[in-house]
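SEQUENCE, STRUCTURE TOKENS:
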Amino acid sequence: MLTAGMLTAAAPATGTVTGPQVLRGAISSQRRDVTLGSLLASSHQAGEALVPVIIGVVVDTAVGSGSTGLLALWIAVLAVTFAGLSYSYRFGARAAERAAENAAHDLRLRLTRRVLHPGGGADAGRLSGELVNTATEDAKRVGAANLVLPFGVAALVAVLVSAVVLLTVSVPLGLLVLLGTPPLLLLTHYVSRPLERRSEVEQERAAHASGVAADLVAGLRVLKGLGAERAAVDRYRGTSQASLLATLRTARAFATQGGVVEASAGLFIALVALVGGRLAADGAISVGQLVATVGLALFLMEPLQVAGWMTLEFAQARASATRIAAVLSSPPAVTGGAAPGPGPVRGALRLRGLRHGALRGVDLDVAPGELLGIVVPSPAVAAALLACLAREADPEEGSVELDGAPLVGADPTATRTAVLVAAHDAVLFAGTLLENVLAAGGTGPAAERLAGRMLAAAAADEVADALPGGVHGTVGEQGGSLSGGQRQRVALARALTADRPVLVLHDPTTAVDSVTEARIAGALRRVRDGRTTLVVTTSPPLLAATDRVVVLDADGVRRSGRHADLVGSDAAYRDLVLS
């Protein structure tokens, strides 16, 4: 039943989303775990920085004085420090990993909601494999920002702690670390910019290669039947090579960035050690302080490397966030609004001045409960008509009305509960035959009884009889275990079981033999009695079962009447349906 409330329910707005917004949102949504991870990781890095200091104290106080008690005390302090390091790293990494996985999961859900949005549009210009790649690899990379951020914060804390400790040892050493670290971080950021650009291209090429591969696998049987395997392999080889080249360019940028970071950090640490050694030689610092200085210099390599890692991961996360934002910001193909709607659906369709794609100003009235045959010589015209009726696209001009209410401006979900367009290339899903037939909803004994009747009406009961397990037998991925005619009959049974007030069928029996087609035509009239049904076809048995047939071209309805009358009086019509 289509109610006014259903028609006026607006679809969620997609809005404009940018890559930085996606990245910031992924981080802020996991603020608690990111904060906890940052605190624990910072504690760990601060403790790591204190280890060489404690060792220096041991050298100066315990070893220098020869006191066994002091030695035992400071060793105990060192043991407690390492215990704290183990605890803080373990639980900090756990919190950061949890934040990364939860953020990636949230992004996958957002992308899934956008792709399944009733308004459509997310798949425009994108292969299904590309969308899968975006929802997996790109979401994972953006989520990983929550993993690296706590360790990046901890790296900065480690540098600050090291600088403060070195300031207490020697002001020149402390200032060297404080003033030398910012230029190193700036250099790391600068050399990562090519990596970000190349990473975005790499992800685009990899996603396109995944999409092409999924497309070829889905059509494998058709390709084998056409003997087009070589052409398919050549197509994928070209796509895969483009992806490989993009990956190699990204790898070169990664190697350059890593090499620059390692070299600059190594030179900086060598400089710190050199200054410390010179101060020790001059007697400005003690042997223990020299040990602490050298230990801190070696320790600084780790936070500087982490800073480089963070820059790399954020560069890739920004690139992936841009790709995710492009999907989330895709404009809907159709929009919902506050159009008024009727109560129970009678099924009266009215097309006025309909202009879309190959259609040019079509006017057509369909009475409630009518079984109407539509003959469309041009596939482009048929595709445009079906897209408007299915709310896959809104007409460029004119209107489509259901019981006097315009479909444009109505909630797409609500209109599709009233008008079901069963496409010619309907896809079956992996699972049992019954699960496919009941895919439009409905469970329980009543739904299964309805499915049984519609399986018989679509002559798909024969398919069930041929399957091991009957209606509970599996049909394979995309119905791969069935023939073309069997898949078509199961798809028709599914459309009939949906039991919509208005049903539009597009060439539902092209792969079915003539005897079975005649059986389906008679059953179709019986099971759809009193409900509006449109059949876009050139099948004589189906057209003979209709109340009326219209011949539709780009400029509108050219002929109208009963099938038998048109066959007898119109040579052009005979050529269309009997040739």
